[in-house]
Give the backbone structure.
Amino acid sequence: MEDTALQKQVKSFLVLFDIFILVISLSPAALCGDIFFWTDEHGIRYYSNVKPSPSVQNIEIYEEKYSSKTTGINTDNINILFKVIKIYDGDSMKVKGAGMDLMIRLIGIDAPESGGKNTTKSGENKSSKSVGNAKQSDNTRYGQPFSNEAKTALSRLVEGKDIRIKNYGTDRYNRVLAEVFTADGTLVNLEMVKLGMSEVYRGKTEKGFDLKPYYQAESAAKRDYRGIWSIRTNYESPTIWRKRHPRK
């Protein structure tokens, strides 16, 4: 039985993604050089740092020009430049670069949820309100308090900028778990915690990922009542909120 168009697209994505994870997990030196892209007769797109056989047609070449040495950013495996093409909420986005579209989940942080069960009662005032000394939009109809503000904060940090990602694997939704860096060396994940637009992720972390600076940033944000911490005892962790407002 022939594959459907959707099955072909899924296979194409899995091939591309598996090879990307393999390449990006190599040392920075291994990433330097040419990276090849090509599409077969079925429309499936491939990605490799090994030159394909002479029989392959329409080969595109991405020449790696960037490294942590030239950017001055002291991190590994983040040589490929990406552009953000969509922000979903305060801790997830879609990026494009080197012929790839990737779903990114910012590792180490958990921003207020922007979706879920409708929790606003009919007739309630949906205008902005003040809670604890800070004015926030009433997002409870569509998500947690400060979910819109977190999304806006992430947008301001990355939109229109070249970014690099440090990969720590994937989550159960096949999103790349990554630290995101802007060209000036800003660690976006950590900055979101500093701004009070995200708490430190409470679940299990990936091997090799250091949460210490994140907890330090969270303590400072709490002390100064920034962002989500401005609502004080009214604040609810996204982990708890998700359990009370399951997505349908």
